[in-house]
Structure formats: C-alpha cells, structure tokens
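Input record (one chain):
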Amino acid sequence: MRPVSDAKKSYHIAVVGATGAVGVELLRVLERRAFPVARLLPLGSQRSAGSTVSFRGKEIRVEELSDSSFQDIDLAFFSAGGDISRRFAPVARAAGAVVIDNSSVFRMEPDVPLVIPEINGEDVRQHHGLIANPNCTTAVALMAIYPLHRAFGVRRVFAASYQAVSGSGARAIGELRSQVAASAENQAPVAEVYPHPIAFNVLPHVDSFLPSGYTKEEMKMQNEGRRIMHLPEFRASVTCVRVPVYRAHSVAVTAEFDRPVSVEEAHEVLAKAPGLELVDEPHQNRYPMPLFTAGKDNCEVGRVRLDCAFENGLSFWVSGDQLLKGAALNAVQIAELL
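The corresponding structure, as predicted from the sequence alone:
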C-alpha cells in the first residue's frame, strides 16, 4: 500500500459515485480546499459512464467502475452505496489505494478507523488501507456532543433528527421537487424513493426497522458514537425523521452528564469547539436552521438550555450540511489528515 503522507506530493484520486449528490459535492470540496490532485478519475455505473463531471474548469469523463479501475490510484473516495463499497473497496485497497468510504459497510469493523477529524483524528494512524466516514446525522450531532462530553462527561443522549432528503441522494432531491410542483398543480404526488410523499409531510422512518422497533439509522448514533468518542458505555435513544428540506440535517438533543453544567459553561465550551459555531440568541430569533447551514462547512448549535427533566441535563439544537460535514467535507478532511 502506498503511503499517503507527503505534503509536497500530488495524488492520483478516484471518486466512486462521482455523479451522485455526495460525489459531486466531494469534487467541489477537493477543488475549493486545493487538495493536491495530480489526476482525477471519476468512476460510476455503466449508466453514468461516458458522462462528464466538472473539476478545476475542465470536464472529465466518467469511467465505468471495474476491477481494473484502481491501478496507480493513491486515494479512493467511495460514495456509491454499501453494495458497491463491499464489492470494490477491497479491490481498491489490494491495488494499493487508501480507501475513504462513505457507506455504513465498514463502520463497525474493529480494524477500520471511524473518523471525525475534529474528534478522533489521531485514529487515522491506525488505518490499514481503509477508513470509514460516519453516518451523517451522527457526525452533525457529535460535533456538539463531543466538546460537551470533554468538559462534563456525557452519559446518555435522547435525540430526534430532522433529516433532509439529500441524505437519500440525488433521486430523493428530485422527488421532493417534483412533489412540490405536483402539489402546486393540484396533482397527486408520486412517491418512489420513500414509502409515502415527503412534500408537506414528515416521515418517522429513516432506514429499515429492527426487531427492537428502532431503525438502523437510529442505532447509528449510539453505536458509531461509542467508537468515535472512545466511549463504550455511551447510550443514545434516537428517533430519526425525514423532513421536506432539500439539504442540511438538524438534531434536537437532550444530553445527561456526569457533572453539573450551566448554560454559561456550555456556551463557553461550544464557542471554542472546532468546526462548530454557536448561534444562540433566541430572543433575537437567532438559532441554527438548515436553510442557513446548507452549503456551510461548519455546523451550528443553539437553543442551549438546562433540561427540566434530568439532573445535569442540557438540551440543544444542532444543524449541519449533510453533504458537507455529514459526508464529502469530512471525507476530504480525513484525506488531509493522511
């Protein structure tokens, strides 16, 4: 495996799923953060092959993903879904590339670092050619939970997510647009991506249901949070909800801590946290909203208040761009650490 470590070097980069919502955003992030790309290889399905993507003012042809795609590739970003990652990430790693994977396939593998750079960036040193990107809702929530944990020791979390359709990819964004347009024409909305119309609706259903009654998505904050924060006793009860927002997730969090906490202390901690902005002037109608965090690298936190039901409890609201900190930006930040 070729080391990815020389800051003066430029790298051969492959992006699997380059025409998808996350893939397109990943190309934009690589460009605006001036990542040292010597060669870009956009990869996609047979259907996407032959189309082009824009990068640094040029149109680059998308090639069909195959077993031979990763020759001489240094870094491979995967954002084409779990089945593709399961099939081709080992192929890329065997060819010598370091894989940064956006799917959930490898997140709980003990030898695969699961990384949010602002929280556990040092874990990338333990990689064996494969690093996992966390779930988007987990990433947004932990940006606020972790700095508070460092100060006060988090015990458990109760949360409800308000997840944008961007979390389901480009088809879901198109479906929301088409349903809004259909409603304006008094036509029946067509639901294909979701089991029910998402326009003017909320769905308490993200991912598939488990025997416990929780969904897979809802268990990710606890399971992934334990790995990322190195906190095996962390507990999180979450209800994940899809909302008719195009982009940026929000999470309402109630956290219980080991030590007493005040709003003033929490504000001080959150204001200093990397990758996070404190927006908390509710009497001036200033609080985080997905409309304004969409397109922003930093997440925002606000509505910070002492919880009225728990001792040492704090409630707050976090918003962050699912395609950026929840996916593409976090993946590129991992590559920058390498």
